[in-house]
Specification:
heterodimer, A: 110 residues, mainly beta, six-stranded mixed beta sheet, five-stranded antiparallel beta sheet, 11 strands, 0% helix, B: 116 residues, seven-stranded mixed beta sheet, four-stranded antiparallel beta sheet
Chain lengths: 110, 116
């Protein structure tokens, strides 16, 4: 399977702390995307990083990509209760469709 | 508010019923997707339409029948579903230049389907 694997499966932190979640994949990619899903809602695109990029920032989000290790990480700084959600990485291997990882469930408590 | 609108939000149907899920986007996107998502699992791709033509069918049972009447609309017709088909059905869209994997997807909030 080309599906990514997120680590950890679940993460619980307090407001103000940083949250880091990791994604590993098995075959070479064209790009990797991160999505957030709040309970009962659809997925929201957060950031896309191309295979020739190593790091990307968007507001409080920082994504890194290490193609030699076939892994990516998503860092959320200064987390807020509103960041509570499931986070999925999605990899593009063929340009036709995305393969979603199993997701990390993040709980941010006040 | 999401830019992809799905109706209905909830649907309960018996195994012998016929119903349809609808999805609409007005972003000018030419690729549209149906996903199935079970609780605490990632979305599973079902179908991809590109320029209103079926591009990918991920070996979905024939009791699910997609339709793309025009570039803004996507339907999923349901017939003789099984209890294991109960799930959240998500629609998504993206720009399509023949390079769908490099584009962000915009998701609707889904239809929560329950099969009795």
């Amino acid at each position: 399977s080309q599906q990514g694997e997120e680590d950890p499966q679940a993460l619980s932190i307090q407001e103000g702390e940083n949250a880091t979640m990791n994604c590993s994949y098995k075959t070479s990619i064209n790009n990797l995307q991160w999505y957030r899903q709040n309970s009962g809602r659809g997925l929201v695109h957060l950031i896309l990083i191309r295979s020739n990029e190593r790091e990307k920032h968007s507001g409080r989000l920082r994504v890194t990509l290490d193609t030699s290790k076939k892994s990516s990480s998503l860092l959320i700084t200064a987390s807020r209760a509103a960041d509570t959600a499931s986070y999925f990485c999605a990899t593009d291997h063929s340009g036709y469709a995305l393969n979603f990882g199993k997701g990390t469930s993040l709980l941010v408590t006040p | 508010d999401t830019e992809v609108t799905q109706t209905p939000k909830h649907l309960v149907m018996g195994m012998t019923n016929k119903k349809s899920l609808k999805c609409e986007q007005h972003m000018g996107h030419r690729a549209m997707y149906w996903y199935k998502q079970k609780a605490k699992k990632p979305p599973e791709l079902m179908f991809v339409y590109s320029y209103e033509k079926l591009s990918i069918n991920e070996s979905v049972p024939s009791r699910f029948s997609p339709e793309c009447p025009n570039s803004s609309l996507l339907n999923l017709h349901l017939h003789a579903l099984q209890p294991e088909d109960s799930a959240l059905y998500l629609c998504a869209s993206s720009q399509d230049g023949g390079d769908r994997g490099r584009q962000p997807q915009h998701f609707g909030d889904g239809t929560r389907l329950s099969i009795l």
